[in-house]
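re: the backbone from monday

yeah here it is again, tokenized this time
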């Protein structure tokens, strides 16, 4: 299998969405041709908060400070998991397979994170790094790498993956001026103080990376795992046109605020608003609009989980509309039936996924 290399240095933060856009367009048939592709990004033009596709922007970031400190809000396209703060010191990468390569997302994580990414950071000098399933690499309890994988299957099956790590020493204060980090996210972590949770290759490795080292380490790890050589190329004209089209969507307020407590409450004026959250392997949050008879009129499930296929949360929430707070078993059976289609929730079981909905419904 031949894999091409696309390399970006000091790029616009939105370039981190390039892999998901190309994958989505290819899976739907909009993009006619696309080879297996490795995308490597070393540093970005400005700091940015990279929101998961399912995250509530109002709960994840301090919106006033985003403007004050000139930080860009970027939301992933069709890819879940947690909010990431990235800056000029961050290295990012993505890989796209426009055909079936892995049995499921769990195998994809084990190979792309547990082998490729782990080999990469070890080659960069972090010899004591370890893979923590499903999607972390940690060193001495600290999160060294964040990752996410999605499997799209519309007209054609496509696997795409994003990962990041701090290459150089980060600003120790700026992320906490921007991010809202709920204590639930650290409930199962070895390190309890969020300010101690970040790591970097320069801090935790045995040398300071030079520009280009991250690219070379990734190319080496990918070549080894997939037994191939990589050649640096450019986007095709067709890919460039599709990227420009979706870039306008990615930068729109409608997309950035697609999950927002404020917009949910405004949309459901006249109904009672309730909220609950619970930390499983991943954090699951539920916002509800209830009528006077405790009947669910609208529901928004948010958090740092992953879903296969993307937008599965919308299929699940449709099954909950018009149920009452006493209908948990009805809801569970509906969701379990839906999941028989081969769907996956990464970070919680189907029953756990809807539990915060009924916690909120009952006022817990």
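seq for it, each position gets an aa:
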């Amino acid at each position: 299998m031949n894999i091409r290399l696309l390399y970006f240095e000091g790029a616009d933060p939105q370039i981190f969405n390039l892999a998901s856009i190309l994958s989505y367009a290819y899976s739907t048939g909009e993009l006619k041709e696309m080879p297996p592709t490795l995308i490597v990004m070393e540093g970005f033009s400005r700091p940015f908060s990279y929101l998961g596709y399912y995250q509530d922007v109002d709960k994840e970031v301090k919106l006033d400070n985003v403007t004050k400190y000139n930080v860009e809000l970027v939301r992933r396209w069709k890819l879940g998991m947690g909010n990431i703060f990235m800056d000029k010191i961050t290295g990012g990468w993505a890989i796209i397979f426009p055909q079936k390569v892995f049995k499921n997302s769990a195998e994809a994580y084990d190979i792309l994170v547990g082998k490729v990414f782990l080999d990469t950071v070890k080659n960069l000098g972090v010899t004591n790094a370890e893979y923590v399933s499903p999607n972390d690499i940690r060193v001495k309890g600290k999160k060294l790498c964040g990752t996410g994988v999605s499997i799209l299957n519309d007209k054609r099956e496509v696997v795409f993956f994003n990962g990041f790590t701090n290459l150089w020493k980060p600003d120790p204060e700026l992320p906490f001026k921007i991010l809202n980090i709920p204590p639930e996210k650290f409930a199962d972590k070895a390190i309890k103080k969020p300010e101690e949770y970040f790591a970097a290759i320069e801090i935790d490795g045995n040398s300071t990376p030079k520009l280009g080292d991250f690219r070379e380490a990734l190319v080496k790890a990918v070549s080894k795992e997939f037994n191939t050589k990589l050649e640096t190329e450019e986007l095709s004209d067709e890919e460039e046109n599709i990227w420009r089209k979706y870039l306008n969507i990615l930068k729109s307020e409608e997309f950035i605020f697609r999950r927002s407590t404020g917009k949910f409450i405004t949309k459901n004026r006249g109904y009672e608003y309730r909220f609950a959250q619970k930390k499983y392997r991943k954090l699951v949050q539920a916002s509800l609009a209830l009528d006077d008879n405790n009947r669910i009129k609208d529901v928004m499930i948010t958090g740092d989980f992953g879903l296969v296929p993307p937008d599965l949360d919308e299929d699940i929430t449709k099954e909950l509309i018009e149920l009452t707070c006493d209908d948990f078993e009805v809801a569970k059976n509906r969701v379990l039936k839906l999941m028989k289609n081969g769907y996956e929730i990464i970070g919680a079981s189907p029953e756990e996924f809807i539990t915060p909905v009924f916690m909120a419904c009952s006022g817990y």
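The chain has two domains: 3-257, 261-362. Residues 105-123 form the longest helix (19 residues).
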